[in-house]
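In response to a reviewer's request, we include the raw inputs and outputs for one of the modeled complexes. The two entities were modeled together in a single run.
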Amino acid sequence: MAVIIPLTEIRRALEGIDVLQAMEQGFVAYSAGRVVVPPVGELLFDDPAGDVHIKYGYIPGDEYFVIKVASGFYDNPRRGLPANSGLMLVFSQKTGELAAILLDEGHLTNVRTAAAGAVVAKHLAARPVSRIGILGAGVQARMQLEFLKPVTDCRDVLVWGRRADAVATYRTDMEAHGFRVEIAAAPGHVARACDLVVTATASHAPLLTAADLHPGLHVTAMGSDTADKNELAPDVLGRADLVVADSLAQCIERGEIHHAVRAGVLESQTVVELGRVLADPTRGRSSGHQITVADLTGVAVQDIQIATAVYRRVRGGVDAD
Amino acid sequence: MAVIIPLTEIRRALEGIDVLQAMEQGFVAYSAGRVVVPPVGELLFDDPAGDVHIKYGYIPGDEYFVIKVASGFYDNPRRGLPANSGLMLVFSQKTGELAAILLDEGHLTNVRTAAAGAVVAKHLAARPVSRIGILGAGVQARMQLEFLKPVTDCRDVLVWGRRADAVATYRTDMEAHGFRVEIAAAPGHVARACDLVVTATASHAPLLTAADLHPGLHVTAMGSDTADKNELAPDVLGRADLVVADSLAQCIERGEIHHAVRAGVLESQTVVELGRVLADPTRGRSSGHQITVADLTGVAVQDIQIATAVYRRVRGGVDAD
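The model returned the following structure tokens for the whole complex.
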């Protein structure tokens, strides 16, 4: 019988897991071709607007395979519900049996997404970071910032968001987490005044253009995960000295690279996968003056890594009791 | 918080559900283009051999969408475990929230698969059926036969299976269910002696050829659901007067039709979808002498129909308490 693990227990397990390391190992394995990751399953809804992604796969020879369901229904907050929901399923690779249901309500997707942002910042941002820029004021805008704490000492933040009230709340909340937060009037101001920028919106129109870039800037675009979402104008990626993808196969179908390749300003073969940068740092940033862009669409290997880590931790705890 | 529905409760709910009707309505809606069914997600394992299918979709305007995971690990029985496992997830179309986890352990997949076989027999087999032929002695070989009870009065069965011990057990078990069961020495004997044949094996090589066919025969091939499984030689479909698919889109990628089309003996545009036969019986069998073949690969609409029916029944029961 499968173990059902509720969110409170998942949160407790996460405290004992080095999520950044699990993500790094996952990306390296993925880019080395050691992970089976079929194309993302997708359901799109119009009324109300929502999307559901099914990400799944396995590392051959590991004990488990993982299927993750994550939904985003963007009108939910108006109804007092979180926009994101979902669960992760852990199965035995040897018998196909369901081992665990992680009722994470989307939290593990948020954590692994934020952790991927931190991995990217750790390996691609120029040092030292003088100011962090955030576009968006939602869950990821918060978690990306929190997850940057272990990878930079910088606590100065410039934020832009579409809704003034949400941005004001963001400032209050993030200041309570030890950041000094200023509010920008436009996305371009953020890019111009910061050297590490994370875009964390569900925008369908570009927020930054090449005119907003400056030497030494790193941008992590993590908001767009479907073919029609878009945070960076194609010329941002065209101008960058280095463009990194979490998954090249996914990023030519969805996310920012997809738009830039279609616009003819970026050749997909110049894009480097994150796992290759981690395995060989010479493929990453080569100077403090380069402009680097990372496009994160979310890869099943992140779900595999975090779900198996949580399940092993919970199971270990059960065994130890 | 999602309702978690264990197998015992699912079995109880099924007693109050007209599964055949739910399948018929589902197939009609599917073939009328009223169901969103993305391509099947698939994971294949070598050591030990196993396959996992993720089927999902929704009927726009309905309350729910459904994601089903079903695994088959064919060495499991040697380890004392059932070959098939899985679960179904019911989510709200309005918020993306997980409404119910149906821990069916693969049972609902078995039920909806057997029910589809019964729907096919009801609408395509020549009347009256004098003898039912079964290839295989596994779970579906049993359930297909049980589900035929309401659609035919015939209780005479000829069965063939690869393993003599499994076939002997099959006979004993099915005789306890009110059938008279004989055992055949070869698959071809079954086709020649019966007028309604169900193939329910995981064979990777054809079991029946055109030489085994006779006027009036109907064959339902439900065992092959991947691109490499194969129960019927291409010339069986080439010779048939009518070939019906549960899903044309799926059957040109996997199952029997897939093999016959690739072999050049069947044109996919001559294949009729089951939902069209149900909506318009003139598209079905036109005489007692025709040879008809139905290829069932399993369609997400079946999972949608059965999962939502079970959840509504359980929820209704809860509401009524």
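As requested, we also summarize the result in words. Chain B is about 35% helix and 25% strand. Chain B has two domains: 3-108+301-320, 124-299.
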